[in-house]
Amino acid sequence: MHLIAISINHRTADVALREKVAFKEDTIRSANVDLFETKAILENVILSTCNRTEVYVVADQIHTGRYYVQRFLARNSGLEVEDIKAISEVKVGDEAVNHLLRVTSGLDSIVLGETQILGQMRNAFFIAQEEDTTGTIFNHLFKQAITFAKKAHNETDIADNAVSVSYAAVELGKKIFGKIDNKKAIIIGAGEMSELSLLNLKGSGVNDITIVNRTVSKAETLANNHGVSYASIDSLPALLTDADMVISSTSSSDYIITNEMMQSIAPQRKNDSLVLIDIALPRDVEPNINAITDVFNYDVDDLKGLVDANLRERQLAADAIAAQIPQEIDAHNEWVNMLGVVPVIRALREKAMNIQSETMDSIDRKLPHLSERERKVISKHTKSIINQMLKDPIKQAKELGNEKKSNEKLELFQNIFDIEAEDALPKKKERRQSSKQDLRTQILSFE
């Protein structure tokens, strides 16, 4: 039994290749089933997002398991197996567990510490579980990974500090105003940075947003996509008289907001303060505009300092989380090792208790006149003898589970006591559905 993780991510492949290997939402269930029916695959979970496609499997052999997963990805994407190999990271055993824990807790994301991947990993696991492609190993391991990531986010501030310029711009507005959900915002520009700023504003509860752009059709498209207002660049002076916050990110070579413009509208201003956040290069807001009363201007350099400081804070939190991963790996390995021990201990106890039961039957035949109380005393004492005799062998069996070549040593242990333990891991066709809802409830309760 071997744990394998195969990852195609933002480090190994560009966006065009990642798009090819990604699984569409309506095919992920059938893809899990398809992979599960493949030779050598005992359990599997598929994660597919815009930044990564990951396949986790329990396989009976490393080489065949890895090959069949890569062949599966090639068939799904239309690429050759060699192409998949070239853009894949392959992790086995402890490295695979380490990778799963890092990905789930956001340590492997483009934006360090982002929390969205936790929900995506949880959903990927739920889908695989619902399709019955997980079993004993993954039902335990993915619960452990999700629990670990949730705990890491709760106990550190890794996700609390803005590390993108557009996000930092909105966070700066929060620092200045305290609350911004009741503020009027203007976004100048209709490109990618403007859209990110718009999403961050809406995510912070700001609904009164107007997009201003020289090409009105672009402003209209962006505004309609997100349910906000739009206007032409000529409307900007009038809009500024009633605004609280402006985020500007155009590609203009000229200043969009000038000292002259602000001087002319200052007497008409209805609100106390106007915060201008200029994330454009070259700048959209004329320098020294701060000289105007109650107008505060921040540019990319101001935000960069905030982002850099926040990134350092995130890295410190990430280091603290990463330091906990080795003990999580040890805990997983200890649990896996005990899988082989538990059936052995159970078989030993069953044999011992059968002997005790047969002995009591013999006593009943030879001493038929024993009272019920006398029989209970004898039964209790014979069970006590058995438990004392089993104490050291059971302890030894548990220790054997954590030793090298544990399978061979446990087999010898069974031969010594003439017992036969059942397989701890059910076969593919022996999976039971009964425990799924309980496990799903447990994982959802971590939120």
UniProtKB/TrEMBL annotation:
Residues 324-419 form the Tetrapyrrole biosynthesis glutamyl-tRNA reductase dimerisation domain. The keyword Oxidoreductase applies. It comes from the Bacteria. One of its GO terms (biological process) is protoporphyrinogen IX biosynthetic process. It holds the Pfam family GlutR_N. Transmembrane segments: none annotated. Substrate binds at T49, C50, N51, R52, S109, E114, T115, Q116, Q120. Keywords: NADP, Oxidoreductase, Porphyrin biosynthesis. The record marks H99 as: Important for activity. Its EC number is 1.2.1.70. It catalyses: (S)-4-amino-5-oxopentanoate + tRNA(Glu) + NADP(+) = L-glutamyl-tRNA(Glu) + NADPH + H(+). NADP(+) binds at G189, A190, G191, E192, M193, S194. The active site is at C50. Homodimer. HAMAP family: Glu_tRNA_reductase. Possesses an unusual extended V-shaped dimeric structure with each monomer consisting of three distinct domains arranged along a curved 'spinal' alpha-helix. The N-terminal catalytic domain specifically recognizes the glutamate moiety of the substrate. The second domain is the NADPH-binding domain, and the third C-terminal domain is responsible for dimerization. During catalysis, the active site Cys acts as a nucleophile attacking the alpha-carbonyl group of tRNA-bound glutamate with the formation of a thioester intermediate between enzyme and glutamate, and the concomitant release of tRNA(Glu). The thioester intermediate is finally reduced by direct hydride transfer from NADPH, to form the product GSA. Belongs to the glutamyl-tRNA reductase family. This is Glutamyl-tRNA reductase.
